[in-house]
Amino acid sequence: MVTGRVIRRIKGGLLVDIGVPVFLPASQVDIRKPGDISRFIGQDVTCEILKIDTENKNIVISRRKIIEDQRSAGKEKLLAEIEPGQKRKGVVKNIADFGVFVDLGGLDGLLHISDLSWGRVSHPSEVVHLDQEIECVVIGVDKENEKVSLGLKQKTESPWENIETRYPVNAKVKGTVVNVMNYGIFVRLEEGVEGLVHISEMSWTKKINHPGDIYKVNDQIDVIVLDVNKDKQEISLGVKQLETNPWAVASQKYPPGTIVNVKITSLTNYGAFVEIEPGIDGLIHISDISWTKKYNHPGEALQRDQQVKCVVLEVDEEKQRISLGIKQLTEDPWMHAIPEKYLPGQIVKGVVTKITNFGVFVELESDLEGLLHISEIADHKIDNPQDVVKPGQEVEVKILRVDSDSRKIGLSMRRVKWAEEDSKAVPAPDINEPSISAASTPRRGGLDGEGLMIPPIQKKEEEKSE
Known about the structure:
Layout: E1 2-10, E2 13-17, E3 21-25, E4 44-53, E5 58-62, H1 64-81, E6 87-96, E7 99-103, E8 108-112, E9 133-142, E10 147-151, H2 163-166, E11 172-181, E12 184-190, E13 193-198, E14 220-229, E15 234-238, H3 250-253, E16 259-268, E17 271-277, E18 280-285, E19 307-316, E20 321-325, H4 337-341, E21 347-355, E22 359-365, E23 368-373, E24 394-403, E25 408-412, H5 414-425, H6 457-465
């Protein structure tokens, strides 16, 4: 065994002066990978001579052999004495991304990165450095496999003790943004205590694509404590709770029946989204645009950025939805106006708007259509309605039925011809002959003829007079 001072670094190792220059290979410097061996320059080292080459006048020494012998003896003593809960001093010998290896004197213990501090640690080198002597708490011992787990943060009390007392639910506290993720931000309330503000807890009304659009690391912000889980060491925080939820008063501010002026923000296949006020949106469903006209897309009646007047139909605070309608600003014409204006038996004019394989839609007035079924176009069988009528053609039709419940008007063309034929077939009355009641003269397709679908209007009036 010899002792000498490291003079300089040479190829493959170190040059040590023990009276004469000797070679210490890099592989023999330590039992672990030594890293930069230049740090030994100027230090005194105790080594064992491995080889003497008298012919080439070379001497090779090993520091590693001395350390191994010392550790072997120390390991047995350490494993016999070490127990969880003990405090042990050691020297930092290696630093990795996941933790630190500490020489306890014969055996290395692992100090995991999560046990370095109660606070956030990005890399162990932020807390310790090589060859530093530290005191750790033994938190786990596997004597069979010769493994020891160490903790540094366990030397102090956990900040999560009595956490519910310091941070009660609904309390307003200050914190520092320490991390920004796509799902939220982490806020440090104190060393070792962080909480999460989920993206959904940042605003009552704004749609936030990424928290980074609002917050950045080191921002000082106020938050509200929403929930504390001591066992999982988790705290849920909120920012939007600092303000009154506008939806909490929406039902009082906009009760059903309220007329509002809104701005259309977007159109979908099923309706138009509108802004009632900043942060409060509503939906005009496509079925609530018109009482009488059926739209395939709301864009046929409305356009983006258009200002429209509508009425509140329903407010759902829980789902944060307000249903609106335009047609409800006026009375439903199917209740009185249409049934009173279009009576079964009437002959009216209309314009063909749409032809299908089952019939023809005829516009009787603006936004009001009736269906002329294929069987009611002519007396003979028709395979294709376009053989008889064309879009835009004006036609005379007879009102067969007005169904307010299903909002449909049934029409007929062939019964118009019947009525014309019946009027030609009836002779002029003879003043010398007894009058013949209309009921005794059959009128094909007339109000009281065969195929009549409703009672004749004349009889209704007679019954009323009686």
